[in-house]
# Entry
Amino acid sequence: MRSTPAPHGIPTLLTVGTLVAASLVVAALGSTPRAVGATEALGAVRSPGEQAFVASHRGGAVDAPENTLPAVAAAFDAGFAYVEVDVALSRDRVPVLLHDPTVDRTTDGTGAVADLTWAELARLDAGAWFSSSHAGTRIPRFEEFLDLVVVREGRALVELKGEWDAEAAASVVGAVEARGLDRSITVASFDARTLALVGAASTVLPRMMILRTLPDDIVVAASTAGVRGVIASRRAVLDRPEVVAELHDAGVRIAVYTLNSDDEWSEVTELGVDGIITDDPTGLERWQRTA
# Structure
């Protein structure tokens, strides 16, 4: 989660408010399923010292190449509460699991994801860089990932990378709805407009906004965006620890990214955060059992 948000992490709240209002109009025009609440999506509010949920970063990047089906399968097999994956758009607007804006680091190819078609991405080896045993692993389409979530009966935090338009956001929502995963998938993004477009496409699917820095009034920001939770950087939370209680009082959950040591886990657990995203979910769960 290295994307860089606009100042204070929440761009154009007026735009967001307009799009959220539009989604309410859409909802009023017809009967829709009940929206997924914060407790259903992310669990009950945690108290200081209580165990947070564990989200395996980029699928399961310790055991297999990040954002690939083997990584996700390994995380589900290990029993982690959530997997976290990144979704980007190819040149021909196919949602695929990739974190970086280019394919250079995690495949044998080069170039920007947005400049490559799905057919070109599908030919790349996304596993050989990790280990010889994973050579030949391919970049998965988002729909392939969702099919695995169905089979494993898992839950996921899905980060939409970059800025998405209404058609692309609706395509992701449609893929989730077609598989009956509205209550298993939570969509997250640094981009407030992207989250608003997802909200306009679905009044059911829960959303979280990702923030590197916190706006002055985090509760107003979360309420305006209509999100169930916030994913914040460790530094932002430690600089303003009172935001945990503020969000909890408003019924909003807070998770922290990406923490990989006992000291980091301890300091946010003591604050009562609801979730921790980590590259070492096995280590975190072991620490939670013994802390």
Notes: The CA atoms of residues 119 and 245 lie 47 Å apart. Strands lie at 53-56, 82-89, 95-97, 156-160, 185-189, 207-211, 229-233, 253-257, 275-278. The two ends are 27 Å apart (CA to CA).
